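Design job #97: recover the sequence.
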């Protein structure tokens, strides 16, 4: 479109009346699957959602929230919050970070871009550090991309490389971290044969080390800083395979929550703290869980914890994670240019918006919704309310989370008459589904349904309109299955719990 033709003005809807309040509910991780005992949404009492499905079948639609339908590379890619909320908020499908990184690696353009040139300056005398999630989950990162980055960086002059791994178990099966570390170690051994000094230097589980989001718990990021930058951690090992195996056995932690560890040499010295003159790349493409570490690595002024030492490094993200903050300022691949999102249209058309969730999902209905931009388009027209999440717990301990509080805020916003769009994210089915705790996930689904009920009642009271949807699946299937749909068993005869999202 020629920019002179462009107008923010929206036409009236052909059918829906003007001036009605719209309640928009995103049930995080609420999908459709065959009804059996591992489908927590089916097992849970969910009268509000059932009444929608049964009471208005002509208005009930299944939507595709995975694969190419939401801009992911392949049909095997499960949906996730970032792509789900980006698509909902923008009303359009963008080729997402995962795919953009694939393309940049395949064409080799990643190594010609500004970001790579910037970090390359450090290769002569400094070390290249790569920090990120080690799995093939494809939600935040992919190990094949890391391996290509390692290879390409060494071909472009990196002589000393240190990898700081974050184990997954959330987008992939718990326990699979060992295999991913083995694969990484093989590639590092190849590099070694070619004369590159490449090793794993530190690690920890993604939910306990580094990958917090929306500033829920800075201690998570601090643990990572100590291990990665300062070289200090409660556990020390000679190699990463041993580290992951022993920590799983000895601390009983799962992959998501492994405690931080560092790799040390024969003299007990850390093999790779981050020093002045080094280069650092965070290799996750997804934004939310990289914003906090990007701030710590980049911001001169920083007061969330004592960094002890703030090395002068060249830092680049795989992508730029926050388009508003322009964070980080250097990146290897340009993020999808998500523009003219629905939120921006609304403020230009005099529609007042209220958005709410609890901390762990707050950015989903604000930051992701607005195309990975933090902040308001117009604070006079919008109000965003964050309900503080519990921190330092896994959510199977409190499966109701803040669903009730979110619903109450939404109800009050609807009844106040001040807003024409009230949007929320109810996190329960997703956050508790990720713990793999089936019994408790059932409680979580019920809690989300209670939230839906309260919001719909408020909408009915004001004669409004509602949309209830989801960003991807999770709680509707809690077990890994074979192709025919039969649950898979592990070597002890137990079912293999599925902690991840679904297709
Ligand atoms: O917790 C997360 O980071 C992802 C799973 O990796 O879940 P969601 O996309 O629902 O936020
Ligand atoms: Mn989600
Ligand atoms: Mn999730």
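Job complete. Output follows.
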């Amino acid at each position: 479109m020629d920019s002179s033709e462009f107008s923010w003005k929206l036409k009236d809807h052909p059918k829906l009346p003007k001036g009605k309040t719209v309640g928009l509910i995103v049930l995080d991780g609420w999908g459709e699957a065959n009804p059996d005992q591992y489908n927590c949404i089916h097992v849970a009492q969910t009268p509000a959602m059932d009444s929608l499905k049964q009471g208005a079948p002509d208005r009930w639609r299944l939507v595709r929230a995975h694969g190419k339908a939401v801009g992911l590379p392949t049909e095997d890619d499960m949906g996730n919050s970032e792509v789900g909320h980006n698509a909902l908020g923008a009303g359009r499908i963008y080729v997402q970070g995962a795919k953009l990184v694939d393309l940049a690696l395949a064409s080799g353009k990643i190594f010609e871009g500004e970001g790579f040139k910037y970090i390359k300056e450090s290769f002569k005398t400094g070390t290249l550090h790569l920090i990120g999630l080690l799995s093939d989950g494809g939600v935040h990162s992919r190990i094949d991309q890391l391996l290509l980055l390692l290879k390409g960086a060494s071909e472009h002059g990196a002589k000393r490389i240190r990898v700081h791994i974050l184990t997954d178990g959330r987008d992939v099966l718990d326990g699979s971290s060992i295999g991913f570390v083995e694969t990484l170690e093989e590639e590092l051994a190849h590099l070694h044969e070619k004369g590159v000094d490449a090793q794993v230097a530190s690690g920890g589980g993604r939910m306990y080390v580094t990958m917090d989001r929306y500033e829920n718990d800075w201690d998570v990021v601090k643990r990572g800083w100590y291990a990665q930058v300062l070289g200090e951690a409660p556990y020390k090992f000679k190699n990463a395979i041993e580290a992951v195996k022993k920590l799983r056995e000895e601390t009983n932690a799962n992959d998501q929550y492994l405690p931080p560890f560092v790799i040390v040499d024969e003299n007990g010295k850390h093999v790779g703290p981050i020093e002045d003159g080094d280069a650092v790349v965070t290799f996750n493409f997804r934004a939310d869980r990289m914003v906090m570490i990007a701030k710590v690595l980049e911001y001169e002024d920083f007061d969330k914890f004592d960094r002890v030492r703030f090395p002068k490094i060249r830092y680049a993200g795989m992508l730029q994670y926050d388009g508003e903050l322009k964070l980080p300022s250097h990146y290897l691949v340009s993020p999808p240019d998500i523009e003219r999102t629905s939120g921006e249209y609304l403020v230009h058309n005099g529609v007042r918006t209220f958005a709410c969730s609890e901390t762990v999902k707050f950015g989903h209905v604000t930051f992701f919704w607005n195309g990975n931009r933090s902040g308001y388009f117009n604070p006079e027209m919008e109000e965003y309310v964050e309900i503080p999440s519990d921190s330092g717990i896994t959510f199977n301990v409190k499966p109701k989370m803040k669903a009730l509080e979110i619903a109450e805020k939404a109800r009050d916003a609807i009844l106040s008459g001040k807003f024409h769009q009230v949007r929320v994210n109810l996190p329960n089915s997703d956050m508790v589904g990720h713990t793999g705790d089936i019994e408790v996930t059932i409680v979580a689904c019920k809690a989300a349904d209670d939230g839906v009920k309260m919001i719909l009642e408020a909408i009915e009271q004001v004669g409004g309109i509602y949309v209830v949807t989801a960003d991807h699946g999770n709680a509707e299937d809690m077990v890994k299955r074979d192709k025919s749909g039969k649950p898979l068993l592990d070597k002890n005869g137990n079912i293999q719990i599925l902690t991840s999202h679904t297709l």
